[in-house]
Structure of Putative transcriptional regulator, PucR family:
Amino acid sequence: MSAKANSHLPSETAETPEKSLERLRYENNKLQRLLEARTQENALLNEVISTVGSTLRLEEVLKRLLEAINRATSCDIATIYLYDPEKDLLVLASATGQYEGYVGKIHMTLGEGITGWAALHRKPIFLKEAALADPRFHYIPEFQEEKFQSIFSVPIIAKDKSLTGVITLQAVAPHEFSKQQRNFISNIAALVTGAIENAQLYESAQRKLSILTSLSMLSQTISSGLYLDDMLRTLATLTVQIMEVDLCVIMLMDQARERDADTSRQLRRLIVHATAPNWNDQSQFQAVDVDPHTLDHLRSLSDKADLQTMRTYSSEAQDLPEGETLERLNPLRTSQYKSLISAPLIAGTEQLGLINCYTYKARRFNSENQTLLTTIANQVAIAIKNSRLVSQLAQKNLVKGFFEDLIQGLPENEESLRQRAHFLGCDLAQPHAVVRIEMTRGDESTHPTSGRKEGAPSSSALQNTYRSLGNLVRRRVQESAPGSIFYEHENLLNCLLPLPKDSDSLRLKTWIQELAHHIYDEYDVRLAVGLGNACQQISDYRQGFAEASEALQMGQSMHSTARGPAVTHFNDLGVYRYLYKIAHMDDLRDVYQEQVAKIDEYDKRKNTELLTTLEMYLENAGNLTKTAEQLYVHRNTLIQRLERIQSLCSIDLQERSNWLTFQVAIKIYRLRME
């Protein structure tokens, strides 16, 4: 009964209708706000998903993600850092508002700052207030971070658990990033990993496609037939595009120094030949002298594909051997460029030069950059080598045609010959001497043999030797007789030497002899030289070439037993010129030839010198005393030799009328034996 009575009493905990209605309205509003938040979150997630599927441009993907995050959290600054595994750095890839200008310029190591801590530990971190007081905080002056109190960093982790990057949010006032907001950011971080990877792959593919396109253009430039300087400027421009740098400088070895035989004893010199953008003010560049050790070091770095990067004006770079090497190879006088990457231009084993790429901003070049520049450098080196070979071939053909037409001496070609000579640096109004020079090494046989001796250089090695010898002789002649021109074929060098007005054949021969002896003594190179008479008119050159050819050919026969150089002027030939022709045109044998052959056979069999004795006796017109002195023998020994000669010979040696015929027969016999 009491219980029943108590049921009619008012309950202390019972709600009044007004309070129940108020509570229901509150809960309804709360649910409505939650529903709106979830709806907004879903809309933002749908926007993120739509963004991820709508573009493969990494920059656009990151920008839209930050816009969605900013709307969802109302933070003051939102940033995304991407991880570069090669550099082991977090690099700012996207930022909101006024901080967009710092994209790519700010980077940090793993563990550095709140963002770096989240990346290193692969865990989100939330600081509601006093973020600057946290010992893990790293101040970034560009962001003016002293005004930010709250910070939230979430790592972006790929499916394979590798680090992709970090999303970081910052707010000015103590900011309560709600659990729902933090979950939203974490969901976005998980959602965008694949999008970022796809965008990075796409950009990498686009970059490689752009590189391949540029490399294709580079190959077309190489085969375009442009002059070397024009081609190098075009190649430098393409290199700037491919390497994404601010300046490309192509330096080549100074060929004037390269032609010097003493190159190994002095520094080699690099000279700037092309730049992109093109610099008209060449005073900004200086020639670079480099020793062989530095070039070898640079080449070894290239062979190993090591990083050849230097912040040219950074003190820390000077502690690196590579930095020191590149600093010595830097032709720039200006300090406006902060980074340099370099590669040698090498064709086969020949060091042709160097290609340098500069950037205004400090940049860390990676191994892919180095490999790419080395590929470009190899292509440029091939282009340079091919261009030079074509130029040399064209020059050689031009000179060859000039010499051939000059030898013909046709009157209708005279004006053309003068113009071509002027183009080659030769003034045909000035008298010239035709000189033919045959080069042989000191260790080669004076007389050619049918086969190559065992251990002798191969034909290709000999050609390289003759080419070096030709360059040496050419340079020495040019130093003393500027304006000389040459045509070289194998080991034979044809030369036109300008003559001063007061020059004569004796003075010219003496100078050539001194040059030939100097080269023989210094380089063990034997020169056989034939000189013709001075050519005053174009019509004289045909005869001049014929005279030099005869002087060379007959002079070698006249000096066949002599060591050292053989320099013969056409006027020195005398009677030998006629005897030589007889010896090589008339193969009939007479009694005098038979007697000479008999004496020579006896000399070979008995190892005597009877034929030389007879030749000297006849040249001295039968003077016994003079002949004995020249042969360095006693008079009685000479008489005994003459008696032996007479016993072998059926012709009376006492008969003076036989002397001239005998003397000529001996000379012809010797010429035939050459």
